[in-house]
Amino acid sequence: AQDSCAHRCGELLGTCSCQVTCQSLGICCPDYKEFCLQISPYSGSLMGGKDFLIDNIALNATSVLTCRFKQQIITSGYVAKDGKAHCISPLLYETGFIPFEVSTDDGLTFPYSGTWLSVHHSKVSDGEKCTLVNETKWQYYGTPNTGGNLTLTWTHQTLAATHINIEVWGYHEIGDSYSENWMAEWKYLYTLAREIPNTGKFSFLPVPAEGNYNTWDFGILRIIPSNYFNGQSNVPSIWSSEHALAWHLEKDFRNDPNAWATAKCIEWDRKEELLPNFKGEIIDCPCTLAQARADTGRFHTDYGCDIEKGSVCTYHPGAVHCVRGIQASPQYGAGQQCCYDSTGTQILTHDSTGGSTPDRGHDWGSPPFLKPPRIPGFSHWLYDVISFYYCCLWSDNCHFYMKRRPSSDCRTYRPPRAASAFGDPHFLTFDGLNFTFNGLGEYMLVESDLTSLRVQGRTQQAHFPNGTGAQGTGLSAVAMQENNSDVIEVRYSEDFNLEVLLNQRVLNFSEQSWMDLKGLFLYSTPDQNITVMFSSGSGVEIRGSGGFLTLTVLLPEKFMNHTQGLFGVMNGNPEDDYTFKNKTIMSVHASPQQVFEFGANWAIENGTSLFTYDTEFLLNSFFYGEKHNASFLPVFSPYEDPADPLVEEMVSLCDSDPFCRFDVLTTRSLQVGSSTRLSHKNHKLLVEHLEPGMSLLLVISCGWLDHPTNGTKNGTNYLLGSTINFICNQGYKLTGSQERICQASGAWSGDTPQC
User: Fold this and answer.
1) CB neighbours (10 Å) of residue 55?
2) What pLDDT score does 699 carry?
3) Pairing label, strands 78-79, 84-88
4) Among 118, 161, 657, 663, which is most buried by a count of CB atoms within 10 Å?
5) How far apart are CA 657 and CA 661, in angstroms?
6) How far apart are the C-alpha atoms of 78 and 57, rounded to whole Å?
7) How far is residue 506's CA from residue 502's CA, in Å, rounded to a whole number?
């Protein structure tokens, strides 16, 4: 009998396959498409209530559909008039891919399965939420000069209902901080408006909420069809953005917002005093804006202050760009933020309210999520945002906030090391050695015993513009994993589109460009630059250029002396970068033929391969074929023929770049040469940004200096070579140093001035 995929999606069975690769290989079980679900949309807010269509199951309208997420959270599904099945996504306290199953026999068996992508509430498109028109007015309502009607708008077609209810929900965390019984809860509070027409607009004059609801100061609105009962969970919903509930707060707030908020700010400050200090375990900031934008494995643009979107930095006046530390700190799940001014210098809260503030709760949450302080977005709001309203926005007590959330400087920051491969593959190692290796096969680019990081590359033959094979190769796929993380592969498909695979399944970025995955974050820009950020802080950047992949790997300093592979032994010494698997070392002055042998030595094996072999071509070429194709011999040193018309164009394009010249001659394509030249230039720029001056000279910071009591200081730059001057107020005399310079030792010259 033929095997069935019921309850077996993702498995390889005796007679056929229920794995995602079965379709392109043509080996699926006959009922694969019925039981292994395709859904659209595939993602939605972690708040839930989103209706999604299941493409596969066709049913009669009498079937009772039950959807079950994570084997425990049950939501009801339904069958539409067209016979298509639908589920409603649940409220989740986590982000990432969530497994779900479907039952058509009223919950007895769940043979159908798929995955739902749960997304951070502020990464969901605005069209999916209802809009608080003039959101600032909602969040400042009752403070001086803020009053009148509030308006809520929404896309009324989202809910198939003639009448709707608008509910207010509040978020709180109960139990003891940082203990086992600390729990997060979204709680239905009351219904703001019931059975109103679903027109897409509602205006009202807010009054303080009844009972003790008016003490909830952080929450969200939910719109549901009015045939559901109040607060019913996991029903079709439209949520607003989460916000400060100034508009419904108690009369005391409206009578004297400043006094009310001041009391809250002081109460918050007292609570903070009793909580553990998280600042000692968060990563220090990069010293310069260039470093912050280059260290993509550990820092990512803060959407609230982005130089590429015009630097609208509401909370950080004077900043042009901020970044957030990607990984939450290990014990407390805390987050780092770093802001920079137009000169590229870090802004510190000691000098300006525009300075960056670290977060007790990382804005993106952190695995395993589910419990405070790791709830995406909302833990952060509770500890770091609503308190900012108390102290800085609703009252004039910002010094309390800045005392508890001072900027970190960059004294202990160490830039990562970068290695790159591009073109007709040229390799630039972490220690700065460069070479060309034109093997055909699958190779270990870098592996580390520190975190079991593995990055593997596959090369395929280059072609001349007329389509015939050239005597060179280029990177066509890169696969990677760290510890037991998800496996990511980036490859050119056979029709030359860039594809990203997650555990062998091709990903679709049409709804989400950022994904929280197991052991890593994944980000794709609109023009398909792919960044993988592993939990160790190592980063991998890949983009397609000129028909080949360009790859950069960034490793933090802790990987020193812990790498091997084609990118060499990262230790600051290029002399040992040609280290073979058996630890023998070849001279850096080796011939191209010897370098070819070094490369061949790093071919991988099927047992350790991370690649997906989902076509006949890949199976025959790389799985059943040799991992290093010994019969393919490339050109080692292409000949420059003065009579060749291409040589003149090559010289004007490439100038003195040897990689560019090599690629034009081996592929006869100026386009390939041009993208190689750009990749080479980008790598040099990256290294220069990460480690200014010499390749190994670190950016040195001497740390913040205060002004003397009864005096002032000039200057807010604390990096090597900077000068700070001190002046006493009238009637005071200066002792100590009037001028201090940041020295190469990391110490300030002179003595502390006093007036």
Assistant:
1) 14
2) 62
3) antiparallel
4) 663
5) 6
6) 12
7) 6
Which among 524, 428, 426, 543 is positioned nearest to 478, based on CA atoms? Answer: 543
What 745-753 contacts at long range (C-beta under 8 Å, 24+ apart), as own/partner pairs, is 746/411, 746/700, 746/701, 746/702, 746/703, 747/702, 748/702, 748/705, 748/724, 752/708, 753/708, 753/711, 753/726
Confirm if 233 and 170 have CB atoms less than 8 A apart: no
Return the exposure string of 182-218: e unless at least 16 CB atoms fall within 10 Å of the residue's CB, then b. Answer: eebebeebbbbeeebebebebeeebeebeeebbebbb
Tokens found for residue 167: 């509910």
The residues facing 75 across adjacent strands are 67
pLDDT of res. 692: 67
Exposure class string for 630-667: b at 16+ Cβ within 10 A, else e = eebebbeebeeeeeeebeeebeebbeebebbbbbbbbb
> 658 pairs with which residues across the strands?
none
Write out the H or E segment, with its range, that includes residue 461: strand 453-463
Which residues on neighbouring strands pair with residue 727, listed in sequence order? 712
Residues 6+ apart with CB under 8 A from 391: 261, 265, 268, 269, 397, 398, 400, 401
Query: Cα–Cα distance between 131 and 637 in angstroms, integer?
Result: 63
295 closest CA partner among 410, 455, 412, 417: 417
How far apart are alpha carbons 167 and 510 in whole angstroms?
31
Beta bridge mates, 115: 99
> What 3-state DSSP class applies to 253?
helix
Mean pLDDT of all residues in 69-76: 95
Q: Is the pLDDT of residue 135 over 60?
A: yes
Residue 428, exposed/middle/buried by CB under 10 A (0-12, 13-18, 19+)? Answer: buried
* Euclidean distance between the first and the last CA atom of the chain, given in angstroms as a whole number: 93
Instruction: Determine contact, residues 543/470, Cβ cutoff 8 Å.
Output: no
What is the separation of C-alpha 186 from the centre of its chain, rounded to a whole number of angstroms?
Answer: 25
Q: Decide if 85 contacts 59 (C-beta within 8 A).
A: yes
Position 536, amino acid: S
Residues 340 and 287: beta-carbon distance below 8 Å: no
The H or E element containing residue 118 is strand 112-119
pLDDT digits (tens, 9 = 90+) for 299-313: 999 988 999 888 888
- Residue 376: φ, ψ to 5°: -55, 125
What is d(CA 63, CA 81) in angstroms, rounded to the nearest whole number? 12
Residue at 656: amino acid letter: S
Residue from 510, 381, 520 nearest 97 by CA: 520
User: Binning pLDDT at 50, 70 and 90, where does residue 409 land?
Assistant: confident
Integer angstrom CA distances of residue 243 from 16, 175, 203, 248, 354:
51, 23, 18, 12, 22
